[in-house]
User: Which sequence fits this backbone?
């Protein structure tokens, strides 16, 4: 990794001597989903984002050719409530403290969940209108365990409808949620695909145990529109699996 960064630094020096200072000084640089600051440029928007272009275990991916395996069941114990925020890239709910996800003998704490449109993961090349990411952190190792759930148009989902009614309209706006229960966004089955990957936004760190639920949830198309009115495209395109295995729990 260090060698990669070093090589990248050399490449930067050669490509653009005057850019070097800015590139190295940049911290939490601005990024977006299109144009000059879009996904194909994330890796060069700042040294800390190097993994976005140099990494070999990036996310999302197209889930295909999964291998059936004896992987641990998932169990969530999330608390209701939290704070809903428009962070300029997505709508994110800061979770109420104390919520957990158990995967076998590993326990992760729920930190936040947020939405993408369209879905970031693909299944056999096919995308869904939206995907929610429940971001958990392992208290001791710091590893992230992110559970992705696809959202498909259909019957209304009460939890998603309540959230959609409260989406803060402007970046930076935040509102308290009284009794939103995130469990309402889970499908009836928690069978899932698992693989090792990365954050799907800069700095694209390769620290994520990905779990993607096989069963989508249905939500009211009108509620999807409330999200896409704010963020019509906030999905990183799928990257190469690079010989990684995707395991399937069924
Ligand atoms: Zn995400």
Assistant:
């Amino acid at each position: 990794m260090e060698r990669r960064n070093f090589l990248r630094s050399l490449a930067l020096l050669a490509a653009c001597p005057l850019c070097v200072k800015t590139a190295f000084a940049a911290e939490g640089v601005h990024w977006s989903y299109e144009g000059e600051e879009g996904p194909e440029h994330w890796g060069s928007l700042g040294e800390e984002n190097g993994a976005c272009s140099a990494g070999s275990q990036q996310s999302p991916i197209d889930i295909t050719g999964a291998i059936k395996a004896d992987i641990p069941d998932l169990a969530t114990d999330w608390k209701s409530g939290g704070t809903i925020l428009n962070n300029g890239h997505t709508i994110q709910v800061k979770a109420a403290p104390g919520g957990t996800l158990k995967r076998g003998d590993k326990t992760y704490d729920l930190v936040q969940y947020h939405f993408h449109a369209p879905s970031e993961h693909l299944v056999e090349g096919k995308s869904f209108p939206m995907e929610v990411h429940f971001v958990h952190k392992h208290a001791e190792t710091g590893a992230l365990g992110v559970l992705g759930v696809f959202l498909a148009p259909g019957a209304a989902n009460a939890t998603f409808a309540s959230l959609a009614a409260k989406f803060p309209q402007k970046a930076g706006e935040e509102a308290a949620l009284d009794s939103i229960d995130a469990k309402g966004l889970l499908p009836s089955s928690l069978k899932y695909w698992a693989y090792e990957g990365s954050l799907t936004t800069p700095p694209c760190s390769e620290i994520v145990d990905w779990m993607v639920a096989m069963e989508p949830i249905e939500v009211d198309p009108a509620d999807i529109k409330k999200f896409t009115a704010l963020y019509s495209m906030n999905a990183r395109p799928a990257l190469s699996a690079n010989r990684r295995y995707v395991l399937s729990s069924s």
